[in-house]
Amino acid sequence: MNAIQILGPKTNPTVSLNRSHPLPTSDPNTPDSEILVRVHAAGITADELTWPEVYSASNPTRIPGFDISGVVAALPSTYTGPLSVGDPVYAMLHPDRGKGQADYVYARPEELARKSECLSHAQAAALPIPALTAWEALFKRAWSSTSIPTGDASSLRVLVTGASGAVGNMVVQLAKKVVGARVVALASGAKHGYLRELGADETVDYAAADWEREVGMKSVDAVFDAAGDGVLARAWATVKDDGVVVTVADPPPVWATDKGAVPRELEGRPGVRYLYFVVSPDGETLGRISGLIDEGTIKPLPVVEFSVDKAVEAWDFARRRGRQGKVVVNFVADA
Ligand SMILES: NC(=O)c1ccc[n+]([C@@H]2O[C@H](COP(=O)([O-])OP(=O)(O)OC[C@H]3O[C@@H](n4cnc5c(N)ncnc54)[C@H](OP(=O)(O)O)[C@@H]3O)[C@@H](O)[C@H]2O)c1
């Protein structure tokens, strides 16, 4: 089968296409709980090249890719769930198993959801990690689904950094359309019109010398950071003293891995909550995302599609800044 592989050391990886990779085999420990999916399209998260899972001993094939859309090719004989062979599905695969950038992959039932009929496979393959990350940031980390002050949600004001990226796009839409918050989107000026169409109430250019003042000092209830580093360093100043800062950007800040560390920007501000997390697979939430797309509440991500024979170019393109759209590799033509 066709499979993308990341070869070489983490310090100097190369992406290559293997046209005769062996078909996958199910996990011998859990043969009854794995569903074979014929992958039609797989999304690229370019930073995956820096993620340790790709290089771990549990991934000898070095096939990357956690976000897939395709059709059920085979079910375990003991399967009693709702899916049938031929059903269109999409998933985020568990990072320990990954391997989605290939013609076939095994997925667990709890990772899969039915693909929305409104989406092509390419559009669906772009969604899982960005949508699940945004959902988890809003509804499980910053607030729980019961602690969002929905009664007065319109008085909530949130800042989204990296707003034009895949994760930021989903945070903007869910914060506006599902929570009902007032959304400030930080992005390059060229993306402001599109972000307003998605629902952003205010747009601020990250190229401005004092963008944090434009957002307003201590003026937002929550910061959702998908840009990290220097952007996160400046975003702390915008959060209220009883607000929350959630970052997912790679590489994670020092305080995320050193549990004793406190962001120096928060000295003297004990009321600000802050957290970094790594997203988990969640087919149930993907089912809700399909529903939100079907009813027109949220729009799919823009995608830039590459056929599998152009997979190496796809990975190069996915690493470029300023592009518009999530990069997807099609393993079936017209996915
Ligand atoms: N922790 C997790 O579970 C998790 C899950 C998903 C993603 N992530 C990480 O989250 C980040 C965002 O992912 P993504 O898929 O949304 O990436 P993406 O589509 O490439 O978007 C990145 C966004 O950040 C902006 N950006 C990058 N550098 C910036 C800078 N120096 N100043 C201002 N804006 C900057 C980009 O703006 P331009 O287009 O203008 O450059 C773009 O809007 C990545 O680091 C990714 O690895 C983590």
Automatic annotation (TrEMBL):
Domain Enoyl reductase (ER) per the UniProt entry, residue ranges: 15-329
CDD domains referenced in this protein's UniProt entry, alphabetically: MDR_like_2 (cd05289)
Positions of region (Disordered): 1-32
InterPro entries per UniProt: ADH-like_N, ER, GroES-like_sf, Lipid_raft_assoc_Zn_ADH, NAD(P)-bd_dom_sf
Annotated GO MF terms: oxidoreductase activity
Gene3D superfamilies: Medium-chain alcohol dehydrogenases, catalytic domain (3.90.180.10), NAD(P)-binding Rossmann-like Domain (3.40.50.720)
Protein name, as recorded: Enoyl reductase (ER) domain-containing protein
